[in-house]
Amino acid sequence: MAIKTDIAVIGASPAGLMAARYAALGGAKVMLLEKKEEIGKDPHPANSVYKGMMDITGEKVDPSYVVHNLKGMKIISPSGHKIKVKTPGYALDKGAFDRFYEQKALAAGVEIKTGTEVVNLNRKDSGVVLKTSSENSDVTDRVKAKVVIIADGILSKNAQMAGLQTMKHPEDIAWGTELTIRSPGIGEADFADYFVGSHAPGWKSTYLPRGGDEAAIGVYVRHFGQDISSFTDSWIARFKDLKGISDDEFEIVERKSAGDPIVTIPGQTYTDNIMVAGGAAGQSGIGYAMHAGQIAGKVGAMAIAKGDYSARTLSKYRSDWRSSLYTEHVFGRLGLEALRKMEDDEIDELFEVFEDEDVSSLIKGNTVNQGLSVLSLMLQKKPSSLLKAGVLFRNK
């Protein structure tokens, strides 16, 4: 016999935790299913958030999961031109971050089942039946929900089982490697650095100070497949040279790989009884994914209250998301696609236009994943700098 609930949320991602919490706050009976045995263990490598990204969620940043406070970010061109953006940011203990929002979900009344993987999904009798399995049991259980919110990341098999093409441009996932490193004083800087150009085609390489002798460095690349080891190795060597770090003062503590759906643009994110949020829906960035989860949770609770779980009712999720975030995703895609198609000298020329300008005042609150808003501003404020060379129309 199936366990019954109003709403089942698949995945304890930032989007999933927020969806579950807001659905419960809206009066629904909610069950959150997470395949990991412990939330916060072996977390996703996303490791920073900026104030503007959190502002859209209405959530206050809590010191319990912050390891280092930032004054902002620097976006750096291939030859070293810098655009400084002063905006409060935070390097995160991502495991502590996840556990913090787990407790918020529990306090709202969410039932959380860890070590539980959804292995099959079927719509039946105005609901969805989920077959689940556990590493600690050979028994396959079933959960029947009126509404299911899928929030289990970019490689979501559940979204595929639901028959949804959740990303318009899945080929544009940025595959990346994030390294936690140690070196004397490397974590003491006040600004994060984001480097763009041919060394990281289509996106960025990064330096995030984490306080004291610890930092995170990473590289994210588009259109080169999931194996980006050559780009990672090159970035490690270049980073040590930029910072003057000798081999005997450089230690790699941890290495993680993941995908970032930064410019994939959400596609089909709902159908009868089902919504998809976060990375599984192509909604990139911690703050943006959390906000999408909030919207999905609220719409799910509204559907339960109405007793109508049809696609027509759940379409409010898409319309509310589009009115809040769609424009920035589109401009972000245009900006990054232009960047991907530009030569390094063209990027340098573009950065020279903005190098001495304070763009901080142009960012009002809603910021795309980290420094992407700056690229969007470039496109909006001075499109001629991109269009004069026909960058957007290059077949590349």
From TrEMBL:
InterPro entries: FAD-bd, FAD/NAD-bd_sf, Geranylgeranyl_reductase. Pfam families: FAD_binding_3. It comes from the Archaea. Residues 4-175 form the FAD-binding domain. PANTHER family: DIGERANYLGERANYLGLYCEROPHOSPHOLIPID REDUCTASE, GERANYLGERANYL DIPHOSPHATE REDUCTASE. This is FAD-binding domain-containing protein. It comes from Methanimicrococcus hacksteinii.
